[in-house]
Amino acid sequence: LLTLNKYPAGSYPSRALFQLGCCLPISCWPRSSRTRSESAPSRLLHTPLEAALDLLVEEELQVDMIRFGLSEDDVRTIMRHPWVMVGSDGSALAPYGLLGKGKPHPRNYGTFPRVLGHYVREEGVLGLEVAVHKMTGLPAWRLGLWDRGVLRPGFWADLVLFDPERIRDLATYTDPHRYPEGIELVVVNGVVTVEAGEHTGARAGQVLARC
Fold first, then answer.
1. Are residues 173 and 119 in the same domain?
2. What is residue 197's predicted lDDT score, i.e. its pLDDT?
3. Of 10, 27, 65, 134, which one has the greatest count of Cβ atoms within 10 A?
4. Burial, 84: exposed, middle or buried (Cβ in 10 Å; 0-12, 13-18, 19+)?
5. What share of the chain is helix, strand, coil (3-state, %, to 5)?
């Protein structure tokens, strides 16, 4: 699976290559989203490495980070390969409550709209149909989920209705808790779950297991 970062390149000597993402303890939340170079001076330490190690000790290793290390050219090349799928290892988050704390990776909200808006519509790296297949039918086939991933009688109806001219991700590294634009309707297992940008309250999702 290919996880897409909004700003994947980060090889410049003057640029911080790591950003603090999330800390589980409440005491750490004010420090979330600091870059490696920003954390060190504030803690009166000599190097960014010392700042990172000190933070890990303080928070008992319950610290997440975001690393910048991919090249956009590499992402485009990999994405074009016919057997590469689009996916995300993002978590189930929300822009409110306890799930809205910290500065997690923007892929949690924007992976698929990023592909459809930026790489398909703006850059033309993939055709729309190919991109959708890489998100749906191809992963379902690879994972052995034979009754999902395509529109077919008797299959589970997992559908997303989006506007290809409007869809785009809004989540950023500094403001990651933002829903994308251009998604009109979401149907999960045949149940309308998002309509006109609002959650209906339905909870039709299921844990998927392959025997």
1. yes
2. 84
3. 134
4. middle
5. 30, 15, 50
